Each structure stands twice: as structure tokens, then as C-alpha cells.
Amino acid sequence: MDIPMVAGAVSTVLFAAANLPMVVKAVRTRDLRSYSGTALILGNVGNVVHTIYVVSLPWGPIWVLHGFYLVSMGVMLALFTVVHRRPHPFRRSDAARGPGDGRHESAAAAHGGADRRAGRPRSRTWREAV
After folding, report:
1. 83: exposed, middle or buried (Cβ count in 10 Å: 0-12, 13-18, 19+)
2. pTM for this one?
3. At what angle do helices 61-85 and 37-54 cross, to 10 degrees?
């Protein structure tokens, strides 16, 4: 192995080790409230486009690193989608609430359904969604 190959292997292990705790924590706690759906979508699209470049390269550490990124970002997006697909048990639709219903924030907050600081429904954890 030459020096660039060793550097690629070491950096692959370091990058994977830096990202793995985030994925493990998300799966273990099922809490994805701090993640941005837009960032997860763009990251996955970027990984798919980057695959075109990676497959043009000879086999090496970049393939392993890119494979890790594809899998971990895909898992995070799937978990995020599961959390945000199901309706929140304390959240009513605007149609059901009716115009001028002032109970929205206080009633939802009393049941833990709203973020009191922002006055908007709080995100659910993955555990609450499944």
C-alpha cells in the first residue's frame, strides 16, 4: 500500500467513526427532532449524484466511505420520514380547528403538543411515531 491509499483508509475510518454515533443515537433514542428534512433530502440527492463519480474511480477506500454515507444518510432519511408521516395525536388539522379557535396553543401545550417558546406543534420522536 502506498501513502495515499493508507491516508484514504485512515480517513475513511475516521469519517465513519465521526458519523456513526449520530446514526446509532437516532436509531436508539428514536429522536430526530434536531434534524432538518431538507438537509437530509439534499444529502441523499448529493450522495446519489456523487455515486456517478465514485464508480468511475478504481476500487479503494473512497468506495467504502461513500457506501457508508449512502447507507447512513438513507437510514436517517427513512427514520425522519417515518416520524413525520404519521399525524401527531394531539394535533388537529386546520379544518377541524376552525377559524378563530384560540384554544390551539394552550390546549396543545397542555398535552405536550406545542413548543411553548415558538407557539408551534413540537416534533415527535421516532418512538412516538411507531
Report:
1. buried
2. 0.58
3. 150
Q: How many CB atoms lie within 10 A of CB 67?
A: 15
3-state SS class at 121 = strand
CB 71 within 8 A of CB 104: no
User: In this structure, what C-alpha cell is assigned to residue 30?
Assistant: 428514536
Q: What are the tens digits of pLDDT across the range 9-31?
A: 898 899 888 888 888 888 888 78
Q: For residue 23, what are the contacts with CB-CB under 8 A and spacing of at least 6?
A: 72, 75, 76
Which residue's C-alpha cell is 408521516?
A: 85
Longest dimension (CA), the chain: 70
Asked if 123 contacts 83 with a C-beta cutoff of 8 angstroms, the reply is: yes
Rounded distance, CA 55 to CA 49, Å? 11
Please give the C-alpha separations between residue 74 and each of 71, 91, 112, 121, in angstroms, as whole numbers: 5, 28, 30, 26
Does 45 score more than 90 pLDDT? yes
